[in-house]
Each structure stands twice: as C-alpha cells, then as structure tokens.
Prior knowledge:
Elements: E1 20-23, E2 26-30, H1 36-45, H2 47-50, H3 63-79, E3 82-89, E4 94-101, E5 108-115, H4 124-138, E6 144-150, H5 154-162, E7 165-172, E8 183-189
Parallel strand pairs: 5-6
Antiparallel strand pairs: 1-2, 2-3, 3-4, 4-5, 6-8, 7-8
Helix pairs in contact: 1-3
The chain binds coenzyme A.
Coenzyme A is lined by residues 49-50, 53-54, 113-115, 120-126, 149, 153-156, 158-159.
Amino acid sequence: xxxxxxxxxxxxxxxxxxxxxxxxxxxxxxxxxxxxxxxxxxxxxxxxxxxxxxxxxxxxxxxxxxxxxxxxxxxxxxxxxxxxxxxxxxxxxxxxxxxxxxxxxxxxxxxxxxxxxxxxxxxxxxxxxxxxxxxxxxxxxxxxxxxxxxxxxxxxxxxxxxxxxxxxxxxxxxxxxxxxxxxxxxxxxxx
Length: 191
Ligand SMILES: CC(C)(COP(=O)(O)OP(=O)(O)OC[C@H]1O[C@@H](n2cnc3c(N)ncnc32)[C@H](O)[C@@H]1OP(=O)(O)O)[C@@H](O)C(=O)NCCC(=O)NCCS
C-alpha cells in the first residue's frame, strides 16, 4: 500500500469549499442526484477516452453507476472527505467532473478530473483546475494542492502542467487501468 494515499477518512479541517464556483465559460456545481441521466450520457459518450485511464469506466457504465457515484459524492461531501463537482457549460450541458480529495493527508488536497469528449481540447479542464486550485488554497489548513496521473497520460499531465503543477515525484504502482504504465507522476502546484 502506498502510505501517501492511505488517508481514507481524512477530513477537511475547516470550512468546506463553495457549492458553486464560476470558472469563466464553465460553472462548477456540487453533484446532485437529478443530474445522473446527463452524467450517464456524458460518460457513455466519452468511454473510448475514459476507459484507458479511469478504473470505473467500462462498457457496462449505466444510470445505476452514475447514481451510485453521485450518492457517494453527496456522502463524502457531508463527511468532509471529497468535494466533487459537475462541470457545466453556461447553457447547462454537463461536460465532466472535477473534485478535491483529502486522501493525500493533512494540509493537502488532490484534484481529479475527466471531460466529456466533444468538449475536450478547448482548454476547459485547464481553466477548471486553475480555479479549483485557487479555491482549495483559500481553505483553512490547506497549503498544498497536488495532481497524480499516469506517466503515459499525456493529456492529463499537460493539463496539470498548464495549470502550474510541477512534477515532484514518480511512483512505481500496480496499474489499475488498461493503459496504466506502472509509473505515476505526482505534481504539486507551485505558483
Ligand atoms: C485529461 C483531460 C481531462 C483533458 O481535458 P481537456 O479539457 O481536453 O484539457 P485542455 O483542453 O485544458 O488541455 C489538454 C492539453 O492536453 C494536450 N493533449 C491532449 N491529448 C494529448 C496527447 N495524446 N498527447 C499529448 N498532449 C495531449 C492538448 O493538446 C492540450 O495541451 P495544449 O493546450 O498545450 O495543446 C481529458 O483528456 C480527459 O478527460 N481524459 C480522460 C480522463 C483522464 O485521463 N482524467 C485524468 C486522470 S489523472
């Protein structure tokens, strides 16, 4: 087990992040159960891009899977362990997900993300990561924000790099996704 990721029950020490965040062309909103059908459509449409990298993305992904994800997001928000947001365009399309996780341990938050394929490559995730990083660093007790991605996941690495995250460590891991290379890169926001 990687002890750096063993903080399963770690809670945010102070105030929680806002439920809604404006990020230029996008709005981040805390996940709500009523968005499960739209989330299912977004994931299903993006499976070719998600399956290589996301352990939960598979051909059987359905409404029950989305509901379960959103239910867990509601619970973990209440527990103070994870803060997951749906990404919306200004006209109300659900185009992905981004979240803050406490699992890296005290004083730090980790950002995770995916985007709906038709909206990829337009700078949206970089913009969302930039804003969520700023928000994370305003939270009491938080002074580090990190991103972890497979070394072969060049798009994710590029998003992190563009948003100001520099590589601090490489970790040997057992791959948990089809394209996993066995090496993960840990990056930290360095303004
Ligand atoms: C990673 C991901 C969220 C990027 O979202 P996005 O909105 O397309 O990101 P942006 O448009 O802000 O930036 C993407 C950057 O990656 C680059 N990129 C995309 N695919 C690439 C590839 N195969 N190789 C190298 N660079 C790549 C783009 O050119 C762009 O960089 P640029 O602005 O310098 O040209 C999206 O690809 C995705 O959802 N991937 C699957 C899920 C995933 O891997 N999540 C992260 C797990 S750690």
